Amino acid sequence: MRLATISNTDEDQFVQSLTMRSSGVWLGGSDMPNEGSWHWNQPNLPLAFTNWGRSALFMQPDNVFNQDCLTYWRCDPWETNYQWADASCGSSYYFICER
């Protein structure tokens, strides 16, 4: 098993349906070792599809405090949909896995 990867809108909406009651979940992406060059960890492929958070409050990825790992969370507390955001790899979130 590995952290989930998302390759299209259908997969993104499916993962969103699984996370609706959580504060956020880990996905299997990062931009280490090259800052700003996001990729899936397994397999090591660039992100072909993205759903980065874009709201009045948060523009993701923002790399605040060396955020190098990919999360799926509610970027805007007033919205119900979840989007992608970068986060510190040491943060505590639930996770979504795939086989």
Structure explained in plain terms:
The protein is α+β, with helices and mostly antiparallel strands and 99 residues long. The protein has a single domain (2-98), classed as Mannose-Binding Protein A, subunit A (Mannose-Binding Protein A, Chain A, Roll). The protein contains one helix and eight strands. Strands 2, 3, 4, 5, 6 and 7 form a six-stranded mixed beta sheet that branches. Strands 1-8 form a two-stranded antiparallel sheet. β2 and β3 (39-40) form a beta hairpin. The longest helix is centred in the first third of the chain and has 11 residues, at 9-19.
In summary, what is this structure?
This is C-type lectin domain-containing protein. This protein is an alpha+beta fold.
Fold blueprint:
Layout: E1 2-3, H1 9-19, E2 25-30, E3 39-40, E4 45-46, E5 69-73, E6 83-87, E7 94-95, E8 97-98
Give me some keywords for this one.
Mannose-Binding Protein A, Chain A, 6-stranded mixed sheet, 1 helix
Helicity, in percent? 10-25%
The count of helical stretches stands at 1
Question: How many domains make up the 3D coordinates?
Answer: 1
Say what the CATH topology is.
Mannose-Binding Protein A, Chain A
Low-confidence sequence ranges? none
Q: What is the 3D form?
A: globular
Major sheet summary line: 6 strands, mixed
Strand portion: 25-35%
Provide the CATH top-level class: Alpha Beta
CATH 2nd-level architecture: Roll
Q: What class, by secondary structure content?
A: alpha+beta
Note the run of SSEs as H and E.
EHEEEEEEE
- Global Rg: 12 Å
Can you identify the CATH superfamily? Mannose-Binding Protein A, subunit A
Distance between the termini: 5 Å
Query: Which whole number gives the mean pLDDT?
Result: 87
How many β-strand runs?
A: 8
